[in-house]
Amino acid sequence: MPFNRISGPIEDLHIWTATSNGFSFVISFETRSGPGLRGRPGYLASWRPIHQSRCAIKIGGSPFTTLAEVEMACTDMLAHLIRPA
C-alpha cells in the first residue's frame, strides 16, 4: 500500500496517508520536543473506514522506530481487515 507524504505550509509536520479497500491509514512522526507533532517519540499509525463517521483506531505497536516498520504494520492491519470472516 503506497503512502504519500502530506505537504503543506508547515514543513515540520511529518504525516503520510494511504487508502485501500475502503480504509484510510495515517502515519505521523512525533517527538517530545522541537518542531512538528509532540508525543511519544516515533512513528504513530492509525486507521478508520473511509465511508463511516468513526474515530481513528491506533495500530498496536505504535510508536514504531522506522517508517518501513510502521508501513508494514499498516499493510498487516489492512490484510486483517479485509480477510473474510
Rounded radius of gyration (Å): 13 Å
Strand content: 25-35%
Main pleated-sheet profile: 6 strands, mixed
Average of per-residue pLDDT values? 91
Helix content: 10-25%
Number of strands: 6
- Helix and strand pattern: EEEEEEH
Helical element count?
1
Give the termini distance in whole angstroms.
22 Å
Structurally, the number of domains stands at: 1
Which class do the helix and strand fractions yield? Answer: alpha+beta
Write a brief structural summary.
The chain is α+β, with helices and mostly antiparallel strands. 19% of the residues lie in helices and 34% in strands.
What would you say this structure looks like, in words?
The protein is α+β, with helices and mostly antiparallel strands and 85 residues long. The chain has one domain. 19% of the residues lie in helices and 34% in strands. It contains one helix and six strands; from the N terminus they run ββββββα. The chain has one helix spanning 67-82, and strands at 4-5, 15-20, 23-31, 37-38, 42-49, 57-58. Strands 1, 2, 3, 4, 5 and 6 form a six-stranded mixed beta sheet that branches.
Helix and strand arrangement:
Blueprint: E1 4-5, E2 15-20, E3 23-31, E4 37-38, E5 42-49, E6 57-58, H1 67-82
Parallel strand pairs: 3-4
Antiparallel strand pairs: 1-2, 2-3, 3-5, 5-6
